[in-house]
TrEMBL record:
The keyword Ligase is assigned to this record: no
UniProt repeat feature PPR, residue ranges: 76-110, 111-145, 178-212, 382-416, 484-518
GO-annotated molecular function: RNA binding
Name this protein carries in UniProt: Pentatricopeptide repeat-containing protein
InterPro entries per record: PPR_At4g14850-like_plant, PPR_rpt, TPR-like_helical_dom_sf
Species in which this protein is naturally found: Ceratopteris richardii
Superkingdom of source: Eukaryota
Record-linked NCBIfam families: PPR
Keywords assigned: Repeat
Amino acid sequence: MERDGFLPDVVTYVSILKACGAIGALKIGLRVHGDIIRKGLLEADLVIGSALLDMYAKLGCLAMARNVFDMLPIQNVVAFTALMTGYTRHGFGEDAIKLFDQMADKGIFPDATTVVSLLKACINIGATDKIEEIHAEMERKGFLESDMTLANALIDTYSKCGSLLKAQSLFDVLPFRDVVSWNSLIAGYAGHGLGEEALKWLQKMQLEGLTPDAVTYATALKAHGMIGDMNKTEEVLAAIENEGVLKGDIYVGSIFVNLYAKCGLLAEAWEVLNTSSVQDSSLWNALMSECVLIGCNDYALNLYKRMYLQAILPSSVTFVCSLRACGNTGAVKDGQQLHARILQVADMGRDLTVWNTMIKMYANFGWLSVAELVLKRLPNRDVVSWTNLISGYIEHNDSGEAFRCLEHMQIEGVSPDAVTVACCLKTCCDTLALFNGQELHCEIVRQGSFIGDLVVGNTLVYMYGICGHLTLAIEVFEGLPDHDVISWNGFLSVYAQQRYTNNAFSIFERMKACGIGPDDSTFLILLNLCSQSCLFHQSQTYFEAISKQLSMPPTYRHYACMIDCLCHCGSLTKALNMIEKVGVHYCPPVWRSVLNACRFWGTTDIAEETFNRTWLLDNRDPSMYVLLCQIKQENQI
């Protein structure tokens, strides 16, 4: 443009900066910034300055955004709001609130966008007092009656913070309620596990004649899943498909992806992602995170590679999922390539979650010197950074280095939290490291630190239980001031570890009698115990209780336990039938379980059938072939 003799004006610069913020083009943005400075436009034109500030805020370059903000000749509501939004979006809620207070001190009146950003900052840090203060001010100025955007934002804020009665009270007094108002309240109930209440409000919404939108459908899907009403779930799925909501809505698409992936239906989840008209990293991230969660790490890495080939811009979540998958599978080469790419993406330089996950990945590889080097190069390393390194040393039987890091961390002024201590205790589960765990326990008692802390207490129960010190585990459990579901799960796993089946079943009944509802992990412990003890009928009883007591259908992992139980009992044909019936055939761990059972029971024909199915489904894991060869050799075929 300039070569043709046309000079860029304000509109040109603003348009380019907006585009850079939208597509993550930081390098181009920096060049434009340099051009603006050379021409003296930053101090001269407030519109250009605000656009530059907004670009840096969107890209997460908050220090640069603050520098631009400080250089502006006039700091108006647009500039304050852009910087506040940047702080809020990237998790710096306290900084956003401080900035709002500075704005008020300067006598600058906030607009609706400013208030919405402030409310989001309050959600980030759980500042309930500030929310009520904002509510009172909005009520005093009559904004709740005149501005639907602000009223809906406040309902949404109360809902997300768990103040559902306040959200409902505000909803009830609104003179007019649109679909966003209803969605905010319904999502609040669903988000806090109150599926039936959410569906009641959904029914009220429909009776008032409002048409559900994509968000409504997504929330309905969650709520029906919570109460285990699969018939209604299928009705919602059919309605979404008929109305074509899924095709253009990323939010609903991600709900579908999560729902299918949680059940191990990776082919169906991929179909949703692949047929979506909007190719955004959030859909890919949803599937990748679920794959890592259910143990299909190779599938997650393949998704990342497909993203790269399709030039879909990765986010921090993409890198975190990929790094975890590499660490879980020991994919060293992929991990190194990820490290190199992260260094090239400017936004990731400040994202501590990504670098902390990288430390964990290298620790999993056993490359502890590299993990420590990554940590030392972090200017803003925190307790999570150190905890990941410490746990790495302990997991690789180097408790001396672990305690050296613990000491060095404290010298730097970073105090260990309950998770750090729990992490150290949890990994002290062999004969040598147990001594360190007991030492740490004694230190906790001596200093009075973390006494009564549920996280530390729960981990002590787990540590002593896994090491076979049943008496000490019981003593710690009974001494806890309170028990949550994690406490009971840890106590239950102590007996499950020793295969004390009757004791474990009694603990489960005692847990329910104390008013603590089981979670999916509780049932996983029970199902695994039944599997190891070949108690198929008992496992069926617990499996059927999942939908009733958790108000959700069984997950992939629950089905995997049932399949494993069938394998232990020698019912291999039934195991194969269940794999086909529930559609978990895309997950290698399930097939490996069947092949291992074939080896134990000496069933070569079923082993060959199992291997052929995995090969046809493209689960071409070389270890499967090795296992098949071993089965044939042992049975002299």
